[in-house]
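protein under study:
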Amino acid sequence: MRLDFHTHGKLAKKLPFSTAYTDWLFGEAKRSGLDALCLTEHFNTLQFEDLYRYLAGVSRRVGDTLELENGLRVFPGMETDVAEGGHILSIGPLEAILELNRRLEPHKQPGQFLPFAQLMDLFEQYPVLVGCGHPFRAPGHVPEQPEEQLRRLAFLDLNGKDLALDRERTQALTCELGRKLGIPVVSGSDTHQAVQYGCVSTVFERSCDTVRDLYEEMKAGRYEIRLSDYAVFQVRTACLLKRSLKEIHALGGNYVSILTQEVSA
């Protein structure tokens, strides 16, 4: 099972949710070779619940996943800011993710984010798998938390965007922290659009459709991380595309129709 642990279903937090854009994204994810992905959408993105309600309506439940018509399985999730600076990933059943998001409503603006320890207290009330996204990306400070707090994490994200920008530093620091805490290091592309799919992925020996089984495979180490030979190009192209599409939207254009129209010779 080829899985991406860190993805998004929208181009940007402040842009409206588009069913056509999300459909395009997941079609491209499948075409890139992914069997499954964790949809770790920003907890304070516009229309967070609308995105998940739409996915629930166009998929079938398989374990904890939402399986789309093209066979791609989506593990529901969320990416949450912490007061100290940094992002925490949570993955679990749809109902748990939606309820957590509603409970975090008072903490969705800068200056209101929960401290790391309090956020972990909240997550521990739900059947979710919790990890740190891109732990060494500035201005994050999660790795500076007390070790007894960090050991509450289930995994670390060896992030595709950071690998492309500085592979040696990202790999060394993330893997060393994982060894220190005794927790798995897995990988996610951190993509908001399709070009970045496949820049890095986590390939498991067996397929999983529940968070519990996924975690057992992670703890047993029955997976490998694969970094694309073209990761640097993919990430740089993705960043350029994202900026361009946001500018099209700002100027009143329809970036979704540009991406989804049929390519002609």
In short: The chain has one domain: 2-260. The domain at 2-260 is CATH 3.20.20.140 (TIM Barrel).
